[in-house]
Amino acid sequence: MPQTSAPRRADIDWIRVAAFGLLIVYHVGLVYAPWDWHVHSPHTIEPLRYAALVTNPWRLTLLFLVSGVALRFMSRRLTAGAVLKARFARLAPPFLFGVLVLVPPQAWIEAMDKGSFNQGLLAWWLGEFSPQGFAVGVPLNHLWFVLYIAVYSLIAAALLAAPPILAALEKGLAWLLRGWGLFLLPMVYLAFARERLFLTYGLSNHLTTDWYNHAMSFGVFGLGFLLALNEGVWKTFERLRWPFLATAALALPYMLWLEGQSGGLGAGGLLKDSVYAIDQWATIGAVLGFASKHIRHADGPLLRYLTDAVFPCYLAHQTLLVIFAYALEPYAMPAEVEAPLLVMLTLGGSLAVYEVVRRIEWMRPLWGLKPRARKAAAVAAEPARAEAA
Fold first, then answer.
1. pLDDT per position as a tens digit, 85-129
2. Among 134, 141, 169, 367, which residue carries the largest CB count within 10 Å?
């Protein structure tokens, strides 16, 4: 399967935009889910336990995979040092800004809502970033994803600094996943990771203890990074797109049924873990295959706008969602009114934030946006975008 140096395709941009948009809607659903979250509506919608499973296995896994793909496209004509510099400029300012400014209102509202704190936001902030607060641990909330991408990018940059090793890994993985190996072997790996690690470590989103998440997320991030430039892999995804879709369509209802059995999917077991992994990879394979086949070249002004907006919207959305959900509580709206309103407020508010910050030069790096002069030069030199968040 030969490699290609062709530019990134629009399908990767569309997948990333759609996945982040879905994530925002999913987070709104967590306000009503039958388990704890940062804030919770007085309304609990029990069927969300099953509705969440429609996307839970593959939503973030797909994001990590396309992030690896995007990083490899970005790095194909850069040195390892240049990649590190670009990643630092892209991720470090938003991460630090988010930890200091975006996450504290979420954590403060959560503490107020759950009755563990009754003072103002400033008092919370000063306590959180005191020696005692650091000793307990500073909350990252949704910024855990940015931290993980940064760490995984460091590992990828180390591979870029050793071209013979990188080439051998790309060649070996492409050989291993040729043909139906691309269909079956990732399912086996994901099932093994879940069977061996999930019950012990769960999903903590804490970098140093999140071993199941790393096995899953870094596994597919590395897969995307190592296979991104191999055109034969994309052709295999396209050729197998219908088997992937049929498998996902069969696995999903079975997985939902298993969730209703004793202990649910969280109880583990080889059957449950295998069905979960089959649904996970089959859905990802179908998305990649159909997108590569049908929207590879579907570029345009809308995609360029959304690609630029998606990272700032991700940074803003959860803070806005928590604020809006908390503010709407006293109005005791019916769930069928409150939930769509929360979706509109969160999506609209996130886009409004983007519209403001993209026009203010000093704020752009804090929200993951390139300086305008650098952005214009990059667009002129490289029409495809899709940088990994």
1. 999 999 999 999 999 999 999 999 999 998 889 999 999 999 999
2. 367
Within-domain flag for 75: yes
Classify residue 67 as exposed, middle or buried by CB count within 10 Å of its CB (0-12, 13-18, 19+).
buried
Residue that is written with structure tokens 């400033």 in the block: 122
Handedness of CA 134, 136, 140, 145 (dihedral sign): positive
Q: Do residues 280 and 58 make contact, with C-beta atoms less than 8 angstroms apart?
A: yes
Encoded amino acid at 170, one letter? E
Give pLDDT tens digits for 71-83: 999 998 899 999 9
Q: Give the number of C-alpha atoms closer than 13 A to the C-alpha of residue 288, restricted to the C-beta side.
A: 29
Q: In total, how many domains does the chain have?
A: 1
Q: pTM for this structure?
A: 0.92
Query: What's phi and psi for 67, nearest 5 deg?
Result: -65, -40
Q: What local confidence, expressed as pLDDT, does residue 384 receive?
A: 43
Residue 387 lies in a domain: no
Q: How far is CA 10 from CA 66, 81, 89, 237, in A?
A: 12, 27, 24, 16
3-state secondary structure of 44: coil
| Cα gap 283→293, rounded to integer Å | 15
Please give the C-alpha separations between residue 335 and each of 4, 24, 25, 28, in angstroms, as whole numbers. 50, 18, 15, 12
Domain range for 307: 10-381
Q: Is residue 5 part of a domain?
A: no
